[in-house]
Write a structure and sequence with these properties.
By secondary structure, the protein is of the alpha+beta class. It has one domain: Creatine Kinase, Chain A, domain 2 (2-Layer Sandwich), CATH 3.30.590. The protein contains twelve helices and 15 strands. The strands form five sheets. Strands 1, 2, 3, 4, 5, 10 and 11 form a seven-stranded antiparallel β-sheet that branches. β8, α7 and β9 form a beta-alpha-beta unit. α2 packs antiparallel against α8 and α8 packs across α10.
Length: about 400
Amino acid sequence: MNGYFRAMAPREEFGAADEDAARMTLGVEEEFLLVDAGTGVPVPQAEAVLGLVRAEPGPTQWQAELFQTQVEAATGICGSLDELAAQLVAGRRLLARAAGTLGVRVVATGVPMLGGALPPRTEGARFAAIEGVHTGLVRDYQACGCHVHVGVPDRETAVGVLNHLAPWLPTLLSLSVNSPLRHGRDQGYQSWRAVEQSRFPASGLPPWSASAAEYDRAVERLVDCGVLIDDRMTFWFARLSPHLPTVEFRAADTTVEAWESVLQAALSRALVRTAVGDLAVGREGPRLDPQVAAAAVWSAARYGVDGPAVHPIDGVLVTGHRLVAELLAKVTPALEDEGDLDFVRVAWSLLRLRGTGAELQRAAGSEAVVAMLADRLVEGVDLDGVGTQPLGRT
């Protein structure tokens, strides 16, 4: 729900680029849902599953979430997409094996697809405080996202980067949409997770800030007003990590297959690299109209990448594909610098052919959706061919 990237090194060891390849470092957190292998209903087995996976060696850090039906996996610090992909796949496979020994399946979906009893909350003072303040909003908030952390040299740079990122965050959501079903019903949205998340204070696109001090004051004000528990609880689609020198992207639903998380990471890093270049020549990020920004987020959640979209800067109706084209045009130089351009081009082509996670869920239907997601969860990543599963569309 609000985990930060715990697997990263201390601040003094972490910078915007590794000295050898000048690559910005990155890492990914993925949240998953635990469901009964027979019924597909969420089951509160997080404590048992986490006990098994934490006993295994590896760079992945494992965390509990608000409810005992969810777990979070955080990769270590990665310099290349190959390294990131390997860690994501290894973590997913370890999690699936451990859960399987308990008769549990692991699925990557933004919200529970099938109904069940209200889940038990994970113990702890902070989770209790969240439940006490937000009551009904979190009583069944089993939302799962994919969070990408990109290293930056300092917080002042990070705030300037954040201002540049805002227009592109709805497009990152549209590429990841993977939560159309909730409690057995199609909600008509591609990302119901984004809709549920929008109910909280400090959600949607981050506010424009002139400095790190101004950004920090904005967060502190919300805490002082009593609507946030602490500075780790903002729901903005991108934010400064409260404890690490990273910009954290939080726009995406948790992704069906690992290569989609790699795509989110590649685009996120390219956006940060592009923003750093813009800041170096004195270009500030645009100040968005808050109503247009909210409309852009809603449209991305409602229609995904294949439908209509709201241009966050121009404030006009366009298509999701046009916004992806604009995003790719903007970050192509950065993708080339990182060596990620070929992967992103192939991944975008595959996404268009296969369909988003939301489309896969609808195509599978309530009878087969759990098996489909569980099977695709553990698929490998070939950075040249991207995915190893057959395409979902006909």
